[in-house]
Every structure is written in structure tokens, then in C-alpha cells.
Design brief:
By secondary structure, the protein is an alpha+beta fold. The chain folds into 2 domains: about 120 residues, no CATH class; about 70 residues, no CATH class. The chain is about 45% helix and about 25% strand. The protein has a 4-stranded antiparallel sheet with strand order 1-4-6-5. A 3-stranded antiparallel sheet has the order 8-7-9, sandwiched between helices. A hairpin with a 4-residue loop joins β7 and β8. The radius of gyration is 20 Å and the shape is globular. The termini are far apart.
Length: about 210
Amino acid sequence: MRPRKIAWENWGPDVLDEEIVEETLNNEDFQEDEELAEEALLFLGKIPKLITTPAGIFQLHDKMNVLNQFDCWMGHSNFDITKTVEKAMESIEGVEFLSVIGRYRFFIGIGRLFNFSDVRIEIEKTFCDNVVIEDERDIEASYTSLFDSIGNLKTLVSEYKYWAIFIGADGMVDYTITNEDNDQEYLDMIIEYEKHKKEHGGTILQDGA
């Protein structure tokens, strides 16, 4: 029997907004005509963007949009999301909105005063196999070490014209730097960071941010 696992996909409004822009720019007509692409983006900025969520259809930046009310994530499991699993998940502290999408997929909204990482650990402790939870003192020490490392790294990379640091939800840290404008390798890494953030969570620190 395979280990029970959950993969997480971020569903923040900023992520969806970026996807709408990216989808527009990837249109073949817009790729061939930069002026037309600029006009399309300008037009998009003037009209309300409608998106479908598990709670209904909303304007992207509507305050009542579920994506703006909670920290939203899509969970992908390799085990059945039964009624029993659903009720147990709803009882976990921090889970404010839950919608089961299918047999192996659920949409979850975390209350704004709760940390997704903490809620995620509780969910995975409850439903997944082989989840190792460290002693609280070890967690605090590892966070302190991580923050120190990021601070030192930020000091180092800030000497470059363009830089970005990616901090994964699992504590992984990576960075990319360049002094050249339109450096393709640098831009490709930024795309990879954005993709990883969308699929697994994380944070991107960047020059000028």
C-alpha cells in the first residue's frame, strides 16, 4: 500500500492574475505584435476579471471573493477524500473554508490569523503517512538559522543589479543573480521560482520588492 500524501497548489489572487496576463501574452497574435499586446493588457486592466472558484463566480479583486477572504490552496491527495476525512479536516484549527472538488482533490481556505504552514502540518499529521514533526525547540532553532542564512544571502546578492531569492515551503533556499539586462537564464529561473511557488508554496524575495 503506497504512503498517503498531499500535494499543495497555491490559489492566491496574485497567482491567477499573473496567469491571465501570461495567457494573454502567449497568444500568437500578441507575440507577433507588441503594440497589440500592450493594448490588450491595457484593456484587461479596465474590465473586471471574472474567475470561477469552488464558492462561485467572482470578480478577481472583489473583497467578497473567497480568494481574498482566505489564504487559499488546492490539495491533491492519493487517497479518497471521504465524508469522514472531510469532517475531520474541517475540525482542524485554522480551516475556515473547505470544499471537496473530487475523489482526490479539495479546496481549502485558511483563516487570515492562522499560518498555512502550521495548518498544513496538522492536516498532514492527521491524514498522511511518515510525517515527522520536530520538537518545537528544534523548529524554532531551524527557523532562526534559516532567517540568519537568508539575511546573509540577501546582503551578498544585493551587490548585483538584479537578484531573487526563493524560499520554499519546505525550507529550501535558492537564488539567482545577474548584472545584465534581459538575461534569459535569470528570467528562466524567475519563471521556475514562480511555478514552484504556485505548485508547492513559498516566498520570492526580489530586487526592488
